[in-house]
Amino acid sequence: MLATTYSRQKSYADNRKRPLEFDVADQVYLKISPLKGVMRFGTKEKLSPRYVGRYEVLQRAGKVAYEFSSLEKLASVHPIFHVSMLKNCLGDPTSILLIECLGVDEDFSYEEIAIDILDRQVKPLRIKEVATVKVLRRNHPVEGATW
Questions:
Q1: CB of 119 within 8 A of CB of 134?
Q2: Same domain for 71 and 24?
Q3: In this protein, which residues make up the domain named Tf2-1-like SH3-like (predicted)?
Q4: What pLDDT is attached to residue 34?
């Protein structure tokens, strides 16, 4: 029964798994993760950037690893990355965030800092009133400010 259960779970996982492969000279994004103090239940801010850069694949370094060019800004980081940290670059190059602007650490994390309070509201509930503020963060445009 254990082998049957294992086989069933493996088939579920394999159906959802998407094979990622890149060729030499493909453009890819590199995954980063925002740090915002305490993350409750592993949730992150909706509008925080997840991928940076536009890097070119130099060579395949194994079955699931790739080496990149132009990582001068991240000289302390090893240039070979696992395929789970990559995303195929198909989008508009103007929407790319530069890694210098974010201040990414060696562990590919950055700290989001609130710059300004744009607006304040008081929402009345049945018993009490809740004050909310619209905050502009350092790496987001004014249109991306969140309540």
A1: yes
A2: yes
A3: 26-89
A4: 56
